Amino acid sequence: MTIGIKKCTMEDLGLLQEISVKTFNETFRDQNSPEQMKAYLERAFNLTQLEKELSNPSSAFYFIYSNEDIAGYLKVNTDDAQSEFMGSDSLEIERIYIRKAFHKQGLGKYLLNKAIDLSMERNKAKIWLGVWEKNENAIAFYKKMEFVQTGAHTFYMGDEEQIDYIMTKTLT
Q: What is the domain range of residue 61?
């Protein structure tokens, strides 16, 4: 298996939308109503919203490839692009998703390590993310990767309020 990571550009906007909708839907559709999923997907992943995020200099998207197939993606934020400001010494992983067909191949760890490398290149002291309190597999993965729960915040799936744990890793 050949793994590659590519930083997204505006030319990737359509593909970014496609992989964003696909991975989010695969991950959360079984635990949420179709109405709430539809509302969230339309709000979060419409082309105008993604173009705005992609053009923000404090955000970056990366595709991960397994052989020639796009397997998932990563979105990181710094400074004012963070979904919750955790300080200028922090980098947020806002999205890290792998398509179901590529689970259990170490690709999530590969993307997480990419985010850690980006944090260190930018001299950040910590890296953080929000993970849905009911996503037990992801929480276990982040704990294994030495993230600890440091708080919680509200996430809206459509108009349904959900809780995300904030998990943080201090970098050395």
A: 3-124
Count of domains observed in the chain? 1
On whether residue 50 sits in a domain, the answer given is: yes
- Has residue 7 been placed in a domain? yes
Helix (DSSP H) and strand (DSSP E) numbers for the chain: 5, 7
Looking at residue 156, what is its pLDDT? 87
What gap in Å lies between CA 75 and CA 62, rounded to an integer? 7
Question: Annotated active-site positions, please?
Answer: 142
Task: List the end-to-end C-alpha distance of the chain, in Å, as a whole number.
Answer: 31
Give the integer Cα–Cα distance in Å for 96 and 37: 18
For residue 158, pLDDT over 90 is answered with no
CA distance 170 to 84: 17
Residue 161, in any domain of the structure: no
Q: Is residue 23 part of a domain?
A: yes
Q: Which residues of 74-95 are buried (b: 16+ CB within 10 A; e: fewer)?
A: bbbbbbebbeeebeeebbbbbb
Q: CATH number of the domain at 25, please.
A: 3.40.630.30
Answer whether 0.85 is exceeded by the pTM: yes
Distance CA 99, CA 162 (A): 23
Cα torsion angle, 102, 22, 7, 61, sign: negative
